[in-house]
Design goal:
Elements lengths: L2 H30 L1 E5 L2 E2 L5 H15 L5 H12 L6 E4 H10 L6 H8 L15 E6 L3 H12 L7 E8 L6 H10 L11 E4 L4 E4 L2 E7 L16 E5 L7 H4 L7 E6 L25 E3 L3 H17 L1 E11 L25 E3 L3 H8 L6 E9 L5 E13 L1 H14 L6 E4 L16 E4 L4 E13 L3 H15 L5 E2 L5
Parallel strand pairs: 1-3, 3-19, 4-5, 4-9, 5-8, 9-10, 10-11, 12-14, 16-17
Antiparallel strand pairs: 1-2, 6-7, 7-8, 12-15, 13-14, 15-18, 17-18
Helix pairs in contact: 1-2, 1-3, 3-4, 3-5, 6-12, 9-10
């Protein structure tokens, strides 16, 4: 048999194993509210090829490819357990099992590693939590996709309504079409139908009421059967507590803003300060996409090396706030054609760091350039450290942070030598460390951080909403602190 034959035979074996993983992953998710992960990447609703690619990705971080032949026994062991709602990382289980020298079987080790989610220890499945989207633009539609994707168990977040201003004939049909097709993020994964008579979009079985209103004060959500909902404001029209309080109408319990909050509105970056949200806090912000991109790696660097000062330069994709062609704009430079120019502009991300990382004493400055790409940006974080380090040391540290730390859902890591911005469209991390571009010279470190300023940020928003709604379930095995 030739090498090519060996490779193809091996592929077919792994393909068959991945196929057999899908019903086990689906059943755990639907029936027990268990989300199966692989090095923090969800395997729920993934295709055979996606599962295999996710396993192969592990070599970029862990130094070696992870095979489905290694993870399948752990999945089978999980399927035999009495599990409660949780997230369980097969990659972590396999990695920790290799390092364990007690001679336990896979079944014994797995049962011990996830003991907090089994039997008498497991938490009860919670009632679904209603969610309302106020606005349905770029972020609103991506958040909608994520909420629909995560509704498989029926016990998590449930998108009940979208509030928009009326747009004329066939408004709901056009909005459903924008949810169904996206020029950057591709086709919606599932089916979408529209009932114009009842102003309802049905996406993967989720009935989503489209409510037309010009102002929050015009809506009583209880009329639509909505109770104790979390409203996500995607418009950015109101950013202070007084303005956002307009949303606290009958049926709405909390308001989450997808833009930097002003005044005393808490700016929350999931993974960094989400655990500071007070249970009775009704209004909070998810900060900006750039703040979410820089704060987790900034925290990681400060924890290990100390940061004395820093500057962030963001090279940011253009947005709907800019003009396609030169035209009047209230802001300087943004009136010039976005797809034809690099545009110097301001960023509030640096000043927002203080809200998310109040213990960081370093002064962080920032600036930004908008460039002619429609999605994915890069933040260049230039840091003066409290002690000297080597490039290899920082490289290995950040790789480990992305793999095993509490920030692994926020920080990703790539060693791809020819990585470019479009490679990171659809990334679910807040930022991705580009290992090849990393520079360290004594006490100076320069990090290049890619981030999908649309989708990665939307994932961070959903994580915050899950946390404040009480449906963010614990992850096993526990990561190192």
């Amino acid at each position: 048999m030739t090498v090519n034959d060996d490779s193809f035979t091996n592929w077919k074996i792994r393909e068959e194993i991945a196929e057999s993983m899908i019903p086990l992953i689906g059943k755990l998710h639907r029936e027990q509210d268990v989300t199966v992960l692989l090095h923090s990447r969800s395997l729920v609703n993934k295709s055979v090829v996606s599962i295999l690619k996710t396993h192969r990705f592990a070599r970029q971080i862990d130094g070696a490819e992870l095979s489905v032949t290694e993870t399948m026994p752990f999945l089978q062991a999980l399927a035999a357990l009495d599990l409660g709602p949780s997230q369980i990382d097969l990659g972590m289980l396999a990695t920790m099992y290799k390092a364990d020298d007690r001679g336990l079987s896979v079944e014994q080790f797995t049962a011990e590693a996830v003991a907090g989610a089994t039997g008498a220890n497991k938490i009860e499945r919670r009632e679904p939590r209603d969610v309302v989207l106020y606005g349905f633009g770029r972020i609103g539609r991506l958040v909608a996709r994520l909420l629909i994707e995560k509704s498989g168990s029926g016990n998590g977040l449930r998108l009940r309504a979208i509030v928009v201003r009326g747009g004329g004939a066939q408004d709901i049909v056009k909005r459903a079409s924008l949810l169904r097709r996206d020029s950057i993020h591709g086709q919606f994964q599932g089916t979408i139908t529209v009932d114009e008579d009842s102003s309802t979009i049905v996406a993967n079985g989720n009935a989503i009421k489209v409510i037309y209103a010009d102002d929050p004060s015009h809506v009583d959500y209880t009329e639509y059967g909505i109770r104790d909902a979390i409203l996500i404001d995607n418009t950015g029209k109101w950013r202070d507590r007084e303005g956002l309080s307009k949303h606290l109408r009958p049926g709405i319990e909390k308001v989450v803003l997808t833009a930097p909050g002003k005044g005393d509105v808490p700016n929350i970056v999931h993974g960094v300060n989400h655990d500071t949200v007070k249970p009775d806090e009704q209004i909070l912000s998810c900060a900006s996409c750039t703040t979410n991109a820089i704060v987790p790696p900034l925290k990681a660097m400060d924890d290990e090396y100390g940061v004395l000062r820093g500057h962030v330069e963001t090279v940011h994709s253009f947005t709907n706030d800019q003009n396609l062609l030169d035209n009047y704009h209230k802001s300087e430079r943004r009136g010039r054609s976005a797809p034809l120019n690099m545009v110097i502009t301001e960023t509030g991300a640096a000043s927002a760091v203080a809200k998310a990382l109040p213990d960081l004493k370093a002064k962080i400055s920032g600036s930004s350039i908008r460039v002619p790409v429609p999605d994915v940006s890069i933040a260049i974080l230039n840091l003066q450290l409290a002690r000297e380090a080597t490039r290899e040391e920082v490289h290995d540290y950040l790789r480990e942070v992305s793999l095993t730390s509490p920030l692994k859902r926020q920080i990703d890591f790539t060693t791809a030598p020819d990585a470019v911005s479009s490679d990171f469209i659809g990334s679910r991390h807040a930022s991705i460390v580009d290992a090849g571009a990393l520079k360290v010279d004594g006490d100076n470190a320069i990090l290049y951080l890619w981030y999908d300023n649309e989708f990665g940020y939307s994932c961070q928003v959903v994580r915050v909403v899950q946390h404040v709604s009480g449906v963010e379930y614990p992850t096993y095995p526990a990561t190192a602190v």
